[in-house]
Amino acid sequence: MLDKTYDQVCEDAGAAAEARLVEHFKQHGGDVWTIGSGCHSCRQKREDVGRLKRCVKCDAALFCDRECQVSAWPAHKAECCIITTFKRLIKSDNFESKLASLLETLTFSTCLKKVEEPMTAGVASSIGMNGPMLPGWFFAVDYEQAPKEQQKALYQAALELYGLLKDDECWTRDKESFPRSSYTLIESLPHASPATGKLQEKFVEMNGHLLLFSAWLQHPEPPATQAIPLEDRGFFGVVDSLLQISTLRDGVDNFMQT
C-alpha cells in the first residue's frame, strides 16, 4: 500500500466494492443471498434446508456434506469468526471485566512503558510524546513485526471490542459491508449490547480510545476502508471501525485539542 497515493487507495477500494456488487448480481440474478438459504459451497437455494449440515462454530452456514464444508471453509472462515464472536459476546454477563481483559491483550497497562522500537517511537513522537517513558495506554507493539500468533490475538481482541462497543449508528454504517454472503443473517444479530453506552464511557475513562488511536497511527486507514467487507479489513481496519464510533472519536478529538 505504500507504493500508492492516498487517492489511489480510495479509488481502488471503491472500484473493488463496485466489482463485488456486480459479481453478486451475476451470481444471484439480483436476489439477495442469505447464508441460511442453501449450501454455502454450491450456492444453490433450497426450500428444505433441514437436511443440510450446519457449521458447528457459527451455527449459521449450511452445507450439503463434509466435502462442501471443506470446500467452502477458506471463504467462510473469516465471516464465521465474526458471526461466532458477536453471538458469543451478546451472551456475556460481565462486560466490564471482558473490556479490561481485551485492553490488556492490546498491551494496556497501569504502569508507564518504555518504547524503543522505531515504529512505536515514531508514533509517540508524532503526537508530541518523546519518551522514553510513555503512558500505560500507549499501544506498544509494532504490529507488522509481531509474531503471527500475537497478530492473531490482537486482531481477535480488536474484533471483540468492536462487538462490545458497536452501537446502532456504527452498525447501520458497517452492516452494508458485512460478509457478503450474510446480508440477511446480520439483521438477526444484535445491533448493540444492552450495556453499550456504559461500556463506551468506561472505555474512554480507561483511555482505551487513545490506545486504539496510537495503534491506528502505525497504519492510518483511508475512508475507503469502510467500503471493504468487515471480514477483509484486518487488524488496522477493525481499529479504524472502532474509531468511527462517535464516543471514541470525540475522545480522540478532545485529546488532540489539549
UniProtKB/TrEMBL annotation:
Entry keyword Zinc: yes
InterPro entries assigned: Znf_MYND
GO molecular function, one term: zinc ion binding
Residue ranges annotated for the MYND-type domain, each copy included: 39-80
Record keywords: Metal-binding, Zinc, Zinc-finger
Keyword match Metal-binding: yes
Name of the featured protein: MYND-type domain-containing protein
Organism this protein belongs to: Hyaloperonospora arabidopsidis (strain Emoy2) (Downy mildew agent)
